[in-house]
Amino acid sequence: MLCIRLSLTLLRARYPPPIVLSSQNRCSPLPPNHEYDISIVSLGSVQTRTTVSPPGFTGSTLERASATVHKFLDSVSREKFRNLPSSAATPFTPLIFSLGGVMEHRTAQALHTWGEVLPPHSHRMLCIRLSLTLLRARVRNFDLWSH
Questions:
Q1: What CA–CA distances, in Å, run from 57 to 27, 64, 65, 135?
Q2: Could you tell me the sign of the dihedral formed by the alpha carbons of 122, 110, 36, 49, in that order?
Q3: Domain count, the chain
Q4: Using CA atoms, how far apart are residues 72 and 43, in angstroms rounded to an integer?
Q5: What tens digit of pLDDT does each residue of 70-129 get?
Q6: Is the pTM of this model over 0.85?
Q7: How far apart are CA 86 and CA 53, in angstroms?
Q8: Which domain of life is it from (predicted)?
Q9: Which pLDDT does position 107 carry in this prediction?
């Protein structure tokens, strides 16, 4: 049986607590305990604008832009791993999204794994919660009414 604990404060917290998936089924591909840290980043930030395409990368303008975005998301993911305490024994996966919904490759792999392991209804509800989190982050970023 796969148990999911998703805090209701996830949508309201500025820095949400990690989502913890725990599995009691020995056949489950997920580890017994695993922590996920959700981060939503803006592609309009200074860090993003200073990111350059990977060296030697050739392709169309769209392919170069995509490679640059994914390079930036990978750097955010590496930073999350770098900031982990050395005493952390629980497996950890950062879930990195852009405001527009572009996912870092580990994030896409985690969502794909959850889709295979979770019951369809649970996976759908988890995706809805993540979608609402992205929507609320976008609204906070582009809130024109508060000025």
A1: 41, 7, 11, 33
A2: negative
A3: 1
A4: 9
A5: 999 999 999 998 988 888 778 888 899 998 889 999 999 989 988 998 888 988 998 898
A6: no
A7: 31
A8: Eukaryota
A9: 92
